[in-house]
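Ticket #4471: structure output looks truncated?

Reporter: J.K.
Steps to reproduce: submitted the chain below (338 residues) through the standard prediction queue, then opened the result file.
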Amino acid sequence: MRINRITGAVIAGAAGLALLAGCGGGGDAEASGEASNETRTVTDSTGTEVEVPADPQSIVTLHYAATETLMDLDLPPVGQGAFMESAVPEEWLDQLDEIPKLAQDEPDLEKIAEADPDLILSPNTYEPEMIEQLQEIAPVYQFTLRGGDRAQWKQRVNEVADAVNQTDELEQLDSEFEAEQQRLADEYADATKGTTIGVVSSFEDNSAYLWGSENMLGTILSPLGFDWSADEDKMVEKYGEVAQGGNKSGKVEPEAQISMEVLDKSLNDADIIFVNSDLRGDYDELTKALMDSAVFKELPAVKAGHVYPVGKATIAGYADAKYGLELTEKAIQEYQKD
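Returned output as attached by the reporter:
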C-alpha cells in the first residue's frame, strides 16, 4: 500500500502544540502525581512488547474494530477511524459523531498528533513504516484485524481490553453473552438440532462472499445447536486465499470470495441461509443484487423462504455479537412456523 508520508518535524510540532495546550491548566496533571506516569508492558498481536499507560486517558483508535470494544467498556476514544452509521448501534451515534475521525484508508498523522493521545490502537494491517511514524506520536498497540486469528473476535476484543487495562470489565460482558447463547440453545433446541445453516454476503459486483464454520459467526451460531453447511466449508477451503483484505499473516482465513457461477454448489445443503446485514437488519446494494440473482433464488433454502438477516459477519465487539443473537432468535421463531 502507498504510505502517507509526513516528516517527523511536523509530527513533533503538532504534538508539541498539543502538549503546550495541555499545560495551560497544569494543576490537574500535577495533582495526579506519579499515577499519571505509571505504565504497563503488554504484548500486542504482532508479538511486540509495548509500554502503555496503566490508565490511558486519551486513546485514538484507527479502526472501528477497536472503537466498538472501547464503547462496550464505556471508554470512548478521543479520535477514531471512519465508520458507517448503519454499522454501529443507533444509541451510540450522537456520541460517536462528536469524536473526530482521524483515519480513513490511512491514518491522518497530523490530526492524530493534534489529538495528543497517550495510546494508539492500530489494526495489524499497516506497513512497518506507518507504525514507526505513529510511534513518534504515542505508544502503538496493534490488534488482530486480519490474519489466521481473524475469526477469533473474542481474542481481538480481549487484546483491546488488555491494552487499556480493562480485562476484568470485559469478563462481565462475556458472561452475559454466553448466558444468552445458552438460553437460546436450550429454548430452541428442537428447532436448531439437525438444522443446517450457511452465511453469505457480497462485497463486489457479480460475486458472493462465503463465511465458513470457523469464522466469526461460526463462534456465535454453532453453539446454538445448528449444523454448518458442509458445502460452504468445502468451498471456503477451495477458494480461500492468503492475500485477501490486508491479510499479511501467511495463513488462509476461513472465508472466501466466489463467483456467482459456483454459488449453487456452496449452499445447496443449507436449510437456513443467513445473510450479512447492517445493525438495522438492512442489506446494502451489493447484497440485494446477490439476493436478486437467479442462482441465489434457486437455492433450496431460498425457495423455502428461509433467508434471514443476521447482522454483521465481521464482529467488532459484543454490541455486534448481541445484535446477531437477537436477529437469530427472530429467524428461529420464523423458521419454526413452517
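Triage note (M.O.): checked the attachment and the full C-alpha cell line is present. The first helix runs from residue 8 to 23.
Status: closed, working as intended.
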